UniProtKB/TrEMBL annotation:
InterPro entries: HGPRT, Hxn_phspho_trans, PRTase-like, PRTase_dom. Its cofactor is Mg(2+). GO terms for biological process: GMP salvage; guanine salvage; hypoxanthine metabolic process; IMP salvage; purine ribonucleoside salvage. Pathway: Purine metabolism; IMP biosynthesis via salvage pathway; IMP from hypoxanthine: step 1/1; Purine metabolism; GMP biosynthesis via salvage pathway; GMP from guanine: step 1/1. Its main location: cytoplasm. SUPFAM superfamilies: PRTase-like. Its EC number is 2.4.2.8. It comes from Luteococcus japonicus LSP_Lj1. This is Hypoxanthine phosphoribosyltransferase. Pfam families: Pribosyltran (PF00156). Keywords: Cytoplasm, Glycosyltransferase, Magnesium, Metal-binding, Nucleotide-binding, Purine salvage, Transferase. GO terms for molecular function: guanine phosphoribosyltransferase activity; hypoxanthine phosphoribosyltransferase activity; magnesium ion binding; nucleotide binding. The lineage of its organism: Bacteria, Bacillati, Actinomycetota, Actinomycetes, Propionibacteriales.
């Protein structure tokens, strides 16, 4: 039977390595926020895994809200067009907001989002991203909490998709070119 692993070339981070790094980020966030309530804003769909693990690794109180925003569509390259597909359900003014993302690639999604959320006047606004591709940043964005800097390759797993698939892969791995070429 076809399995996810058939489509991968190499594992960059195992599920255990990812979880260990998430725990470190959570400890850092707990220390920085000093017991203040945090509003975590997850960016659908990619952030679902890191949101769920990060929130549970934190000792601080938090609430969660979600935005759906897309820059990729279904391909492997950013289209450069950022669209809000679903807005927040809560008012973030005066709140300590932490945006949670799976990956910063070009930075277009986050730079748009930071600008958009800043105009709603949160008390503080920071970003946590599990992965960052430093080589590909065309719109620089200040990411306070970064899990791993990764090479500029097409990676999947832990929320990262290709054409909507592979998000449920527990490891983070490179996708075999025969899948997307
Ligand atoms: C991916 C990823 C980030 C964004 C990063 O989302 O989850 O949100 O692209 O790319 P950028 O830095 O070049 O903007 P995508 O638009 O694929 O939607 P998804 O989260 O539903 O997969
Ligand atoms: Mn995304
Ligand atoms: Mg995607």
């Amino acid at each position: 039977a076809a399995e996810i692993s058939d489509d991968l070339t190499r594992v960059l981070y195992t599920a255990e390595q990812v979880q260990e790094r998430v725990n470190e980020l959570a400890a850092q966030i707990d220390a920085d926020y000093q017991g203040r309530d945090i509003l975590l804003i997850g960016v659908l769909n990619g952030a679902i895994m890191v949101m769920s693990d990060l929130a549970r690794a934190m000792d601080s109180h938090c609430t969660m809200d979600w935005m759906a925003i897309s820059s990729y569509g279904s391909g492997t390259k950013s289209s450069g067009v950022v669209r809000i597909l679903k807005d927040l359900t809560t008012d973030i003014s005066g709140k300590h907001v932490l945006i949670v993302e799976d990956i910063v690639d070009t930075g277009l999604t986050l730079s748009y989002l930071v600008q958009n959320l800043r105009s709603r006047e949160p008390a503080t606004l920071e970003v946590a991203a599990m992965f960052r591709k430093p080589g590909a940043v065309t719109a620089p964005v200040d990411v306070k909490y970064v899990g791993f800097d990764i090479p500029n390759e097409f990676v999947v797993g832990y929320g990262l998709d290709y054409a909507g698939k592979y998000r449920n892969l527990r490891d983070v791995a490179t996708l075999s070119p025969h899948i997307y070429s």
